[in-house]
Amino acid sequence: MTTEPALPPPGTAPAPAAPPRPAAMPAEPSSAEPPSDELPFAEPQFTAEPLAGPERAPRAPRRPRPVLLAVSGLVLGTLVGGGVGYAVQAQRPPTPLPPIQVARPSYPAAAVDPTAFAAQQPKPLAIDGDLLKLLIGAPDGSAAWGEFPDKPSWVSVGELAEHSGSAVRDFKDLNSRGFRRAAEVDWKKGDTRYRVSLVQYAPDRANEAATHAVGTTRNLKPFADGANGGYRVDETPRYWADSADRYYYGQAVAQRGTVAMVVEVFDPKPVNPDVVKDLAKQQWERLV
To answer: pTM of this prediction?
Structure first.
């Protein structure tokens, strides 16, 4: 028994082959458009029409900006004005310059006497030396005033600031205004207390010495000819710090170069103006 198909008997024509089955047709589209004659897999046809969307209005032509017009006009006006000015100036005749005149050096007919020339110069201020030697001393019969020195002595900027009721403020002011050094002498005679001080500032701070001496003092009366300052006495009493004790105050101030001179008198009764004036005159004479 074999599995091969039986051959047709000789002389018999072969049976015709069955025709191929047609391929399944695609479903008809749901739209109402008529079917196309093109094949289902034909390439799509592209058109130049834009996609669906709102229609855009054509853009108006751009106008020149005002700033650009202004800059262009400015540049053009400058060039035109420069050209016109150059043309006008080129037509004018040249103006000759005046001759250069230089003064000839002149020399004295005779040699200068060094001694006479030095005598004509202003005398240097007597403030470059030791301030202790420039202070007056306590008079005879006086006593020490508490812990204050009764002979000319150096005082620090802190000790100088403690003399007033605003020590912190005065300490800052002295240091910020070019304070250099200070010397003073204090004494007591009877119930009256005296203080004379010399405060010197840096060489370029002479104006600060003037402010320290006479900057805040009013109604001063002169105590000596040529003195840059004056004196005054109070008619109303003051009170010592943290005390009910009263005192009357007298003061004399002056400025000599970079040195400020201050003379103070504290008295339980009204201060005699002649006493203040005499002390100020004595101290001023040692500075000139």
So the answer is: 0.57
